[in-house]
Amino acid sequence: MSPAVTETRQVGFAGMDPPDRWPRPRSAPRPEALAAGVETLPRVGPAVQKRLAKLGLRTIGDLLAHRPRRYERPAEERAISDLIADEEAVVEGVVRAASSRRGRGRLKILTARITDGTGEIRATWFNQPWLEAQLKPGTRVRVRGKLNRFGFQVESYDLGEVTETADYAPVYPASEALAQKQLRALVGEALALARAEGDALPASLVVSEALPLRADALVALHRPRSPEEAEEGRRRLAFDELLVLQLALARRAQEREALVAEALPAAGELLQRYREVLPFTLTEAQERAIDEIDRDLAKTTPMQRLLQGDVGAGKTVVALATLLRAVEAGRQGALMAPTEVLAEQHFLTIEGICTELGIRVALLTSALGAREHANVRQLIASGDVQIAVGTHALIQKDVGFRDLAVAVVDEQHRFGVEQRSALAEGRSPHVLHMTATPIPRTLALTVYGDLQVSEITAPPADRKPIVTAWVSDDRSSEAYERLTHHLRDGRQAYVVCPLIEASETTVARAAEDEAERLRRVELKGFRVGCMHGRLKPAERRAVMQAFTAGEIDVLVATTVIEVGVDVPNATIMIVQEADRFGLAQLHQLRGRVGRGAEQSYCLLVSGPKEELTDVANERLEAMVATTDGFELAEKDLEIRGEGQLLGARQSGLSDLRFTRLRQDTDLLERAREAAADLADEGLLGDAVERLLDADHLGAS
Ligand code: ADP
Ligand code: MG
Questions:
Q1: Is-above-0.70 flag for pTM?
Q2: How far from 545 is each of 348, 363, 591, CA to CA, in Å?
Q3: Is 675's C-beta closer than 6 angstroms to any atom of ligand 1?
């Protein structure tokens, strides 16, 4: 190459000194612009900022990621003379005059006469008195609404640029304090900065996946000209978040592989005796799960396995087998539950068997008195306690195990993940996560992508599917008759109190009142106990023990019995005002019966069908139609949408704003492949970091 050519080169190419600063191309991404607070936007003062924060909107980026709940339907633009009563339409015209008056109560009615040359309408607004000043005679205005006998009722309007009255205008999750119009305007301001984010995906990927640019996708999401455009935008944004999720999961899996655990020796005599002590033989599904666990325990990387199985499928038996492996190796096991009730229940369940096997178990909850708590902690630290059962109190910093080898975490989605990571800090036990939250397997792989999954698909063979009936409340006396029939046969029952949105105390009082009422009326002559979250732990335990021992016939309870309570002699349950419960909750509640060989029943009582919402009807129909938790999980997805998937709040799923899992399985697959190709490139590093930090992904 000739020197002359070299000299015309810009500084900074190979072999030359780079400049102190590169000139900044105008299109260069400035992602920091999106990190700026909403208060940097015009007209956002402290009050608005606070209201935005209530919706989780703190930065410009948050506004851009505020996904419209839906879009307005398209409305015909009509001349005033062509307006049809009760049809949504858009009218453009000029204000003739405006005036306001008071209506009934505190209602303020603003009326404007608007003409477009073909006729005149009297447009009305409610409770927007400030608008009068803007509707001066001669002002051009576009209104969207309906003509009825009172005039033209305005739903939205534009005085300048067409945004509110546009077809497919976005409808955001808003709040009472923050009007749709204001939110749209703010998102509009944020959109002007959308390009600042740049596109984190390599151009080659954008091309090969045939995706729109991210900035275009955001515009399409918030200002679509058609539903198709909105959908295309959404899918690009969904791809991004799925890719981040997959990259994060890959990173986590890698980190885990670096951890070291001690391999446990093969199962021996203790496990043999365990099988003999159990009053039943393990099912094939249970044996398979144990097998998979055994293989993990033989490795020097810590087990991270998710044990999935519907309520009553028999997971606890498998969990105990796993804990016993630690004991057999001369080490310790921990069993953790999300609530005190469940921890106590687990303790009661395994205590008997453990005693029979000569194993020392202890229950450690925050409910223990200080001295007792210290005592149990000491026994755990010295290794005298071989299996410790508890809530998160077990993994608080002041509880030290002498030699924890296996931890079982029940209902893991209820755990704050920080708690789970605290467990593993400085030591790497083998961990078995148990969940009765049935997530379809494909989803489980997405959410818990770095966990191995074992499934107990079939319940013990002698189980009869629970018969579920839906009864309207005018026939609730028949439901109670049926229930007392079971009681007379020596069976036990649950009555679940209505779910009321109130404080724990109010709920507790309602439960007590209901128990009292039932004692006098429907359940006269039977022993009725009551269980709710306000009972002191000792009282709760006494009630549970009495119910387990058959000293109480009926347990009237709030949803505290939702998980874990295990009394096989309870064969019938009445759920009052069942329409108020979520599908997952109903399924969990129903799982309290049908735990023995006896035919069990679940009676869902609600108001008349016609008075329930469609969604409530769908839920109750689904409950009657199937007892299969996986099927119900799918149904729940359909009814509620993805982010709220059964108990997924603690998992990566809650971070998925744009993804529709059922619909986007292809995207998920593509994101997984792309993540595998790109894993080492540090792509989307910040976003991955953020996700891992917020840690919904289940630190080991
Ligand atoms: P899960 O934890 O999955 O909800 P559990 O382990 O609590 O289920 O088991 C539910 C009930 O079924 C318990 O009463 C348990 O003793 C019983 N059970 C578990 N495994 C079997 C089996 N193989 N055969 C018969 N009964 C079983
Ligand atoms: Mg259980």
A1: no
A2: 8, 15, 19
A3: no
